[in-house]
Amino acid sequence: MKRLIIFIFFLMTVAYTQAQKMDWEKIKTLKVAFLTEKLNLSKAEAEKFWPIYNDFEEKFNTLRKKMSDSRNFEGIETLSESESKKRLREIIALEKEKHDALETYVNDLQSILSANKILLLKKAEDEFRHKMFNEFKKRRHQGQN
């Protein structure tokens, strides 16, 4: 009986993880379509753009995770002064790394896109994020009713 419960729990965990993964894949697909439409990239631009964009997204997500971990302020009251200084240095180093990654990304993009299209990209990303947030709020509200 105990094994059956553990097995069922395991299956539910795997199913939940797969569902989340599928949701993220679906969102990524929607984002690619949205950006492609908004930027109106030529075939040559798209071939060069997407590898740069995907590489930056991966780096940025990794940095975001590291920054989130470093900003875990749980138990901060018990840190010594030297531990606090170390944590501050880590946060500053990650912020610099984030800035450097963004600067490299923009420079790489400028080799294939106009400055105007890069600004349109930023605007389109913001619009997509806003749409996703609103959709999330709408679905969450519907779930409560």
Span of the ends, CA to CA: 37 Å
Number of E strands: 0
Q: Return Rg in Å.
A: 21 Å
Query: Outline, from the CA principal axes?
Result: flat
Helix content: over 70%
- SSE run: HHHH
Tally the helices.
4
Biggest β-sheet description: none
Describe what is shown at a glance.
The protein has 145 residues and is an all-alpha fold.
3D architecture notes:
- The chain has 145 residues and is an all-alpha fold.
- It has one domain.
- Helices cover 87% and strands 0% of the residues.
- The chain has 4 helices and no strands.
- Helix 1 crosses helix 4 and helix 2 packs antiparallel against helix 3.
- It is flat.
- The two termini are 37 Å apart.
- The mean pLDDT is 84.
Describe how the helices and strands are arranged.
Elements: H1 2-39, H2 43-70, H3 81-110, H4 115-144
Which features does this protein show?
145 residues, mainly alpha
